[in-house]
Amino acid sequence: PNKTIHQIAKGLVGSILSVKVIQAEEESRKLIFSEKEAVWTKFSTQINVGDVFEGKVGSVEDYGAFVHLRFPDGLYHLTGLVHVSEVSWDLVQDVRDILTEGDDVRVKVVNIDRGKSRLTLSIKQLEEDPLLETLDKVIPQDGSADSDSLTTSNSSTIEPLPGLDAIFKELLQEDGINDVRISRQGFEKRVVSQDLQLWLSNAPPSDNMFTLLARAGRQVQEIQLATSLDQEGIKKALQRVLE
């Protein structure tokens, strides 16, 4: 059964603890101590933004998960929050679908608020943003690749993946989108998914041309989008079309 604060305090009688004085009241002759602040003072100096830790998931809330960080001595001295937006690059509706109390995870320290003794952590930033992918990265051109694994052509000679034609028509009805066409296609060595997947590349635009990637089975197609929209505007247009 869970113990009350009073029961925990009684169990600490006679123990030697490292604590920090956080308040002193001279009139009432009262001192208030914090073990948590003492631990923070000692171990927060050993952490920097960008550090990667092995951790264990503590409580999981609607807004994120608290992760206990394991230090080189093997003990979990500090705890930080992985906000729901930092759990995965995919949209997370419920953190509990991905993380459970007791899970072992790797996290990256993304912010240290020393004034409030808070750590902000990220799981997704240990993985590369899928929006950074390009066709050349999905199908690398190394010595093991087939000579025809990438095909440069235009939309008139490449048959769009099933379902793309309808998506193209809806995209062209969006304000600010002027043209959509397939520029290249390639074939992966393995099947990732038979379902059509479509995402926006984070490759820098050129002459108001953005790049989309579409995948189904082994086939991947690179799509050029001529638009006056910025990246956020394109994302919103894609969300409307794919709903």
UniProtKB/TrEMBL annotation:
Origin, by domain of life? Eukaryota
Q: Which PROSITE patterns match?
A: S1 (PS50126)
Record-linked Pfam families = S1
Q: Name one GO molecular function term.
A: nucleic acid binding
Q: Which InterPro entries match?
A: NA-bd_OB-fold, Ribosomal_protein_S1, S1_domain
**Boundaries of each S1 motif domain copy?**
50-124
Q: What is this protein called?
A: S1 motif domain-containing protein
